[in-house]
Amino acid sequence: MLRRVAPIVLTLVVVVVGIFALAAGPRTPPPRPSADFVVLVGVAGLRWDDVDPQRTPTLWQMARGGSIGSLSVRSAYRPTCPLDGWLTLGAGSFAGWTGGQRDGTCPPTEVRVDKPDRIGANLPEQESVVVHNQDRLPWGTVPGALSESVRCSVAVGPGAAVAAARPFGRVDRYEPTLPADPAGLLGSCVLSIVDLGTVAGTDPAERAAAARDADAQLARVLAARPPNSLVIVAGVADTEQPSRLHVAVADGPGWDNGWLTSPTTGRRGYLQLIDLAPTALTALGRPMPDRAFLGRPAESVGGRPDDLAAAIAEPADADREAAAQREVAGGFFILLAGVQVALAVAVLPLLRRARRHAGPYGPKPVSRRVVAVVELLLVAAALAMPAALLAEAVPWWRNTYPALTFAGLTAALLAAATLLVRLAPGYRSTLGPLGAVAGLTMLAVGLDVVTGARLQLNGVIGYSALEGGRYAGLGTVGLGVFIAAALLTAGWLAQRVRREWRPTVMVLIGGAAVVVVGSPYLGADSIGAIALTAGVSVAAAISTGGWLTMTRLAWAGMAGLAVMIGFAVVDLGRPPGERGSLGRFLAALGDGTGGLTVQRSSASSFQTLVNSPLTVLALVGALLVWFALLQPWGGLRRLFGIYPAIRAAMAGTGVAVGIGGVLGAVALDVAGAAAAVVVPMAALSALRVLDHAADRTRPATDRPQDAGPSDAGPADADRSGAAPAGGAGASHEPRRDRGRVVRSSAEVATG
């Protein structure tokens, strides 16, 4: 009775832990109005390396007293061209100008601004732009939502007119250029948007001249700013491919000497272009529009260095790191996929000949040296992800040749980690390499997440601030690697204890992993926590024996669903600005806009599926497992029969990454990242267990029949049909009993 009830109780524990981890979010007080006027100043293309005391003294002084940050200018298109950026600024959501981009470049597009009177202006193309964003783009963006939320707005320059135009095309007050004395104009409405031109090109002299001109105009704006006003300067767009991080400075009451951040980034010193519209409305004390912005109000937080030069150096360095990451990441994953495919092909003949025959006849076994080399290569392949993560601790992107520097640094770390596994005390045992690799990987990813995920931001196996998808917590690749490492570690530890304690070990390790993944203070991945809850439930249910049946899979799915429902109830009870992705999606379903989210998720999944090298890793790993390792000669069935906790860990990993990929709209990326760790270790363990398949050992008699052996020996006798026997690291000397050879109990169990 207790054995039947225990998995249910432990699963409920995982569900409670998952809901607690997701619900324990930070409670922030509602923002208060801080200004009577807001002036949004845009300079397309302005980056932090364009700012210094000589070229841009006004902006430098403004940054000294205000708050600064790196601005991600993601819009509906890549790259974000100036008109796309201005339109996104005024919409508070991802928007794009009609016509889009051609070949990834920004075409020279002029916006038509009619001025029928001396006060305002009209944009004749605004109606088609609104239709384009509402019907053809998947975000349901409303251009002009910012200006519609205030009674009156001012626009200076054509870019500002695009941002300030109401949905029907009217600009309340408009001037094509900044007046000599703009005080009257800026004080006529609570919201002013000013276009100070563009800083473009790669020539340093041209960029310096454009930045100097924009700074001179900014000095006139600051001199004429209304009293009790908030002034925000932003590099609102890219001017060429590839995308970069841009300038963001806020100066006004409550924005003194700090870092800019927002709930959409959750990272100090980072905010998005879509955050500027809700920031302006919040500062003015105005309500948000009926169709909520995708952006969230920015805020100022402390921790900035007192030295302004050192403070500005941080976002400038982040821009260089993000640019280098984009250049290196693609090559790294392609190389990793190629190496893992080559290893999968190389392992096939070894698996065929790995089982040593006890008699004098049979095929000649593969050389021990060859097998040892292949095993080390499998260990290195499984450790490639954590090695690349740790390489981010060294600023390789500052080198003249960043790709070569990253490659050399990763290779050195990979060699050191592989040597550490090779010298580990239990390396020669069947599960020794698996336990060491899983433990090191979980430690590397887990420590990074616990300490703020600094190595993942703009990291090669992390996420880029330029993409605008994630800025803090656990990324897609990190999630797959961490799920695999945590469950394999739990399985390795569970295999070392008595059978009745294995589900408890699985729940303890898995529950801690759920907290790390789902906590808003740590991994901040609610979808990953839900998926991992289902995986842990599966692993706990079959860790004592048995296979993954439909009943157990349904039970695990119910556990994940329980966590999702519990978190949804908590999330929907929060204010709209504090809700997570699940709460926002359910709210969108309630107001009839959920179809847009589904459409975005479907499009994102398809693009990821066809473009990501991790798809190759997932598919090749699945093919190797199904057509080789799970065959009678492949060794994985024997491994699963002898070590049921390892089988449970791998089954739980499959369930978790499958759910995570579907719910997270990342196709096979999570599965591919997990396969990069699991498949090499599964192949290595299969080689080890096949190598000992014909061993003759004396059955153990000095411990209970159901006692759990260490990883040096096979599993105990349980309902899966496995029995205690000598595995790798045990005595393999045959014994005679009345003239016959006694087979090992593991061989009896597995046939």
TrEMBL record:
<keyword id="KW-0472">Membrane</keyword>
<feature type="transmembrane region" description="Helical">
    <location>
        <begin position="431"/>
        <end position="451"/>
    </location>
</feature>
<feature type="transmembrane region" description="Helical">
    <location>
        <begin position="372"/>
        <end position="391"/>
    </location>
</feature>
<feature type="transmembrane region" description="Helical">
    <location>
        <begin position="328"/>
        <end position="351"/>
    </location>
</feature>
<feature type="transmembrane region" description="Helical">
    <location>
        <begin position="610"/>
        <end position="630"/>
    </location>
</feature>
<protein>
    <recommendedName>
        <fullName>Di-and tricarboxylate transporter</fullName>
    </recommendedName>
</protein>
<feature type="compositionally biased region" description="Basic and acidic residues">
    <location>
        <begin position="695"/>
        <end position="705"/>
    </location>
</feature>
<feature type="transmembrane region" description="Helical">
    <location>
        <begin position="529"/>
        <end position="548"/>
    </location>
</feature>
<keyword id="KW-0812">Transmembrane</keyword>
<feature type="transmembrane region" description="Helical">
    <location>
        <begin position="471"/>
        <end position="493"/>
    </location>
</feature>
<feature type="compositionally biased region" description="Low complexity">
    <location>
        <begin position="706"/>
        <end position="723"/>
    </location>
</feature>
<feature type="transmembrane region" description="Helical">
    <location>
        <begin position="642"/>
        <end position="664"/>
    </location>
</feature>
<feature type="region of interest" description="Disordered">
    <location>
        <begin position="695"/>
        <end position="751"/>
    </location>
</feature>
<feature type="transmembrane region" description="Helical">
    <location>
        <begin position="553"/>
        <end position="570"/>
    </location>
</feature>
<feature type="transmembrane region" description="Helical">
    <location>
        <begin position="670"/>
        <end position="690"/>
    </location>
</feature>
<keyword id="KW-1133">Transmembrane helix</keyword>
<feature type="transmembrane region" description="Helical">
    <location>
        <begin position="403"/>
        <end position="424"/>
    </location>
</feature>
<dbReference type="InterPro" id="IPR017850">
    <property type="entry name" value="Alkaline_phosphatase_core_sf"/>
</dbReference>
<feature type="transmembrane region" description="Helical">
    <location>
        <begin position="505"/>
        <end position="523"/>
    </location>
</feature>
